[in-house]
Amino acid sequence: MHILVVEDAPHVRQFLLAGLRAEGHELSPAGDLAEARAALDRGGVEFLIIDRMLPDGDGLDLVRALRREGRRLPTICLTGRDRVDERVEGLRSGVDDYLVKPFSFEELLARIDAVRRRSGVAATLEIGPLDIDPAGRTLLVRGASVELTAREFDLLLVLARHEGQVMSRNRLLDQVWGVQHDPRTNVVDVYVRYLRGKLGAGLIHTVRGVGYVLDPSRRPAEEPEAG
Predict the structure, then answer these.
(1) CA–CA distance, 177 with 18 (Å, rounded to integer)
(2) pTM for this structure?
């Protein structure tokens, strides 16, 4: 999904960009309303995350303008203002959700999924025989429901959001378990094996010496699989 991130604080903007990029989203950054409008005019933006207090005005003004133009772009407003009347103002301006700083990145991801569902934006990831609903945390394999544990679903979701991209064990360990590096554990290999048992063959492939990739179109590797 192509997300426009409008935030003037460099450290917050980089935090958002890094996290959303790791989730597999296409991103356009902007530091003020003028840059945001230029990005919107270029087209292709599917979701808007916008700060309120920007150097050239209030982010809500842009949201109001978009709504007047009939553009129902799903939008989350970020702000340091936490008064009830200010939150109400934000929601009445046309934003779909209002997140007060500081916030956890996991909460932001959950809010994005919720807004996408409410806005009718397709949130399901369709990959080969898989239909993955991140918001509902459900999985269909060839139309049949398959139950996953929470950790199995988290691992599948990371692989799915990076479809066709080889993910190292360390990167998976970081994004799924929150551990940056642990040479003593084979937990990633164990959970990949669990997933393969539930998804079937030919979906998750081992790239020797690197990690794993979810890619239904990839030919099975000839080398033995790790784990």
Answers:
(1) 18
(2) 0.56
Alpha carbon distance 36, 21 (integer Å) = 18
Give the number of other CB atoms < 10 A from CB of residue 87. 17
Supply the mean pLDDT for the chain. Answer: 85
- Which amino acid, one-letter code, is at 127? I
How many CB atoms within 10 Å of residue 18?
Answer: 11
Q: What backbone torsions phi and psi does residue 185 show, to the nearest 5 degrees? A: -105, 145
pLDDT in tens, 88-106: 776 777 888 988 888 888 8
Burial class (CB in 10 A: 0-12, 13-18, 19+), 180: exposed
Judged by phi (left if over 0) then psi (alpha if -120 to 50, else beta), residue 135 lies in alpha
CA-based angle 85:88:94, to the nearest 5?
145
